[in-house]
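Appendix B. Raw example, untouched.
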Amino acid sequence: METEDAAECSRVLAVADGLFYAHGIQAVGMDRIRDAAGVSLKRLYRCFPSKAALVEAYLRTRDEWARNELSAYLTGIESPRERILGVFDWLHAWAQGADFHGCAFLNAYGELASGSEGVVRAVRDHKSALRRYLRHLAGTTAARDPETLAAQLALLLDGALSGAHVSGTAAPALDARAVAATLLDASGAGRPAPA
């Protein structure tokens, strides 16, 4: 029975993920999720005791998805510089898809930040993890200040995500890639890190 419950909860979360990301969190009610997932409202609330709990689980799942997808995309790129630029190549590839609706975290923050500590926490956790990842990438280069470079790249990435969403085109990702290359050159990251 526990396996069946877990499968239903996973289905509810997958349905919520698709609906929240495509239509926005406030526009999607629990009844719509229940109907799309094919579960009773009682079962839905047993999986997620509130919409806020479901939204937080959605954001945590999105965080895991984004970090896994980005990491997989960068696998095999050996040059530290190209790995960093690859972050923007990944965004460009993703933003070309019909299922791209911008940054789920910025969208959720814009919709719910004033009323949900869980959303704020999930968004900040994701953005912190992304910045740590960029810091790790910057640390593999000869950048004079990897922490500052990572902060600049994170800001650039958020801007590219928003720009791609608003414009309906993936072009901002390529523009951001060009700016990232300039930042890498200015930071000294164009050279291999000392052994």
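End of appendix B.
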